[in-house]
Amino acid sequence: MKVKIVDENHIINKKPVGLIKLWGVTQLERILRIAKLSEPTLIEINSKNDRKIIDKIIKRVNLRDDIKVIISEKRSNKRYDLVLDTKNVYEIDLKNKKIDNIHTIDKSKDKKIAETKIYDLNSRLEPASNFTTHYVIRPVGNFLTKRFVRFYPIITPNRITFFAFIICTIGAYFLASKGYMFRMLGLSLFYISFFLDCVDGPIARITLNFSDFGRFLDENTDRYRIIIFYLSPAIALYFMDGSFYNIAFSFILIGLVFFNSFMILKFKTAFLKQFDSYISAQNIFMLFSIFILIDQIIFGYLLFIIVLSAISVYIYSKRKE
Q1: How many domains does the chain have?
Q2: Domain boundary among 60, 91, 107
Q3: Does 40 share its domain with 157?
Q4: For the whole prediction, is pTM greater than 0.70?
Q5: Which residues in the chain belong to E strands, given as ranges?
Q6: What count of Cα atoms within 13 Å lies in the side-chain half-sphere of residue 55?
Q7: Over the stretch 101-137, which tens digit does the pLDDT of each residue have?
Q8: Residues 44, 151: Cα–Cα separation, whole Å
Q9: Are residues 102 and 67 located together in one domain of the fold?
């Protein structure tokens, strides 16, 4: 596919429209990323902007080596499969390889309108399967997304994923330590990790910063985080009552989580998806937080986790109806 990017010398607030930033990403970079996702063989950029700035943007987009890039001030008469203008704000449907123009920037007020449309289209998440994620984790995650995305490319999705996992690991250390204040600090770090986990995905979609490595990093840190989520409370409870049964229960829960995830992928039944929401890491951790706050050992730890998680899912399912 041959793609042409038209970057006219249109000025808004003394700035070329191609260099106007929407959620921390210049229009030229956004369109280059869309062109990259359309799997081109040739990209021609018609622009009168500074060549050094354009080269810097191209380097940040990290195009494949086999994609030929031509930069010129004059338009050529070649035939192109796709023509994109930096005055327009585009969104790409990756499944159908369809590119839509969602807004045109003609005035300074169009920048805010375009940012709102981009955010609304890319911050939507699949419905949460459990009460805790829907009412606690995601609202805070949405709040953080709007703040962090403006600092792109300093703050990138991969950096957020890695930072969230490091915080989770540090939180696990404090949570498994002796002392009430250490456990409180561990809880706080765990919640920060939960919140950040809801930020990397939306920022990747808003900035069009997709990569195979980012997907690999996110999926694997989520798996390791599940193990930490279930094992750390058991170690903390072991220090509180000296019983190894809590650790054994945690390993059982870890096995159930991974086995159920495998069964969902293989059989895709509604019952298994519902069971997965019962043993959600977020629900278990929310319940354990209450135990830590009151600093008491509650008999039937595993039973209470399952019962309270089931109640939360029931309440949430009724709300959707």
Answers
A1: 2
A2: 107
A3: no
A4: yes
A5: 2-7, 11-12, 15-16, 21-22, 25-26, 42-47, 68-72, 82-85, 88-93, 98-104
A6: 3
A7: 989 888 888 889 999 899 888 876 665 555 666 677 7
A8: 29
A9: yes
